[in-house]
Specification:
Layout (H helix, E strand, L loop, with lengths): L2 E2 L4 H9 L4 E4 L4 E6 L3 H11 L9 E3 L2 H7 E2 L2 H10 L4 E7 L13 E6 L3 H10 L3 E5 L11 H7 L6 E2 L10 E4 L5 E4 L5 H8 L4 H11 L6 H4 L26 H8 L4 H19 L3 H7 L4 H8 L6 H10 L4 H9 L10 H11 L5 H10 L8
Parallel strand pairs: 1-9, 4-7, 6-10
Antiparallel strand pairs: 2-3, 3-8, 4-8, 5-6, 6-7, 10-11
């Protein structure tokens, strides 16, 4: 049985297009897959696994948009998906009527995962549709943990993609059709998912912004009419208004790095990917959760200095603490500003361990501030 490297994905995609079945490493366990919208491909997958007709196959998609094409995504489900997918999570959603009945054995729900590796994402994109994705084993038997075991257990496979798994444990399964209910425990707990659904306390955020406003008058200010606002310069002209200082600190810092830009680009890329590894994520998980596309992320990996809002989006995607966020920003010559409303909003959310970038963007929009990954 031929084993393929990640340089031979076009060949594996052709196998899938021709209703073949291949094995691929996922973030949880080794899997076997086939294209979803083909009865013949499904039959071939059942033969490989000796799986009964009564058991439907989970699906793997490349993006939230692809999930929306085949399933009804509730507001709570979308929050869970944005927070933890790609990742070790399978969500159960109501199937759209446009999806053929054979895809899930006539049931009204679908079990869906999102590709957490660039290789599987590319296979889905090249195939042009979601993939059936199930564990590499004979139905009812122990999941294979090595490529040799896969060859022995599934001799009818048309090929194997080389690689390694990350968790070595099956994904958490959550029923998101009506609320959130854990059907199978995995790397993610019910508490993890529940925390994601908590709303951002906008009243507390507003109080924080008021408290940290550098132009906020104190009681002493109110009783001292001649005092100037902190950070503002009073004009000598009668009747003149205070001038707003430009937010130059981050720009000045960036300029100071111009002479050693190449060195700093490498330093930032090294720190970013060290943090990704330390947090236990894959590149795909991070750039999708940050709202970035693969090409832009590849440029960052290659040493390009990203914009400040992109660095903030990456910090939120990796769930960094405030110190790590500051370190990551500093590698690009940026800093969290005490003047910028956007920076203070992001700082508050990180300090509160609130990482819902969609909700944070809504707050930024309401405040007239630049959005993350804009």
């Amino acid at each position: 049985m031929k084993r393929y490297s990640n340089q031979e994905l076009p060949e594996l995609a052709e196998i899938l297009k021709n209703d073949g079945v291949i094995s691929v490493p996922t973030d949880t366990v080794y899997g076997v897959c086939a294209r979803a919208f083909s009865i013949q491909a499904q039959e071939n997958l059942r033969k490989v696994k000796n799986r009964p007709l009564t058991k439907a196959f989970p699906l793997m998609c490349a993006s939230l948009e692809q999930i929306r094409d085949i399933a009804e995504v509730t507001a709570d489900a979308e929050k869970i998906i944005r927070a933890y997918m790609p990742g070790p999570l399978t969500v159960v959603l109501k199937k759209k009527d446009s999806v053929p009945a054979y895809v899930n054995g006539g049931m009204d729900t679908l079990a869906i995962r999102m590709a957490s590796s660039a290789e599987i994402e590319e296979l889905i994109e090249r195939t042009g549709e979601p993939l059936y994705m199930t564990s590499a084993n004979q139905s009812g038997e122990r999941t294979c943990t090595t490529l040799d075991e896969i060859e022995e257990s599934c001799p009818l496979l048309d090929g194997i993609l080389e690689g390694e798994t990350r968790f070595g444990r099956a994904s958490t399964i959550a029923d998101c059709t009506d609320g959130i209910h854990i059907l199978r425990e995995g790397p993610l707990t019910e508490d993890d998912l529940r925390k994601t659904l908590r709303p951002l306390d906008r009243k507390a955020l507003h109080a924080y912004l008021e408290k940290t406003d550098p132009y906020r008058k104190t009681a002493e200010d109110r009783w001292a009419p001649k005092a100037s606002f902190p950070g503002k310069k009073k004009s000598s002209n009668v009747g003149a208004v205070y001038a707003e200082p430009a937010e130059t600190s981050a720009l000045q810092q960036k300029e100071s790095f111009r002479a050693i830009l190449d060195h700093e680009a490498e330093s930032f890329a090294h720190m970013l990917f060290r943090m990704i590894d330390r947090q236990g994520y894959t590149d795909v998980e991070v750039y999708k959760r940050a709202g970035l596309d693969r090409r832009y992320f590849s440029k960052i990996r290659g040493g390009s200095i990203p914009r400040k809002n992109t660095v903030l989006a990456l910090a939120l995607a990796m769930r960094l603490n405030i110190d790590d966020t500051r370190d990551l920003l500093a590698k690009c010559g940026y800093a969290l500003s005490d003047i910028s409303i956007r920076d203070r909003i992001v700082r508050y959310c990180i300090e509160q361990a609130y990482y819902d970038t969609e909700e944070i963007n809504l707050v930024l929009h309401d405040c007239g501030e630049p959005l993350l990954y804009e």
